[in-house]
Write a structure and sequence with these properties.
Layout: H1 5-15, E1 41-45, H2 50-55, H3 62-74, E2 82-85, E3 92-95, E4 98-101, H4 106-123, E5 127-131, H5 133-140, H6 146-149, E6 153-155, E7 161-165, H7 168-173, H8 177-203
Helix pairs in contact: 1-4, 3-8, 4-5
Amino acid sequence: MTTSRPSLTRLREEAADCRACHLWKDATQTVFGEGPAHAPVMLVGEQPGDKEDLAGKPFVGPAGQMFDRALKDAGIDRGKTYVTNAVKHFKFVPRGKIRLHQKPNTPEIKACRQWYERELATINPALVVAMGATAAQSVFGKITPINKNRGRLIDLDDGRKALVTVHPSYLLRLPDEDAKAHEYRRFVDDLRLAAAHLRHDKAA
């Protein structure tokens, strides 16, 4: 019996040589998704950051630590999820020794969408969680406002469900501690919606 794991391995190998947009030129490497081959949920972020670019793994930097904490608080085992990004190369501008994150633009998101689509087809999750505007644009194929669409499950054309929420890096950028605590609770609440749906889907 064959599994999807070899397919994920092949996808990762193909993506390592992707030249669909210019971002590969300055990035250290392609940062592909990680997780079980048949994970019930696929969590999609924006793009790798500095730490992810160097490590070659998604969500291992400061935003990744916030993400891990929120998943735990929501009752989701990261080890049972598939975690990826809409854009697989780090986009940045150098400022001395620091590499400042730059938001991917629409052509870059479109160029990289083939990898999201192929990951989705291989993993076949029941639920996709789009974290941030770039992820939402990739998942829905169009610009999708976060605040107008978060807090509820949305039907995708292929029959699966999607959930829109903020990217954990947004929480890190909030200067006010009260606002940060409030937005963190909202983020965890969104992830709890995902957890509840997965429990219901498993029981059905």
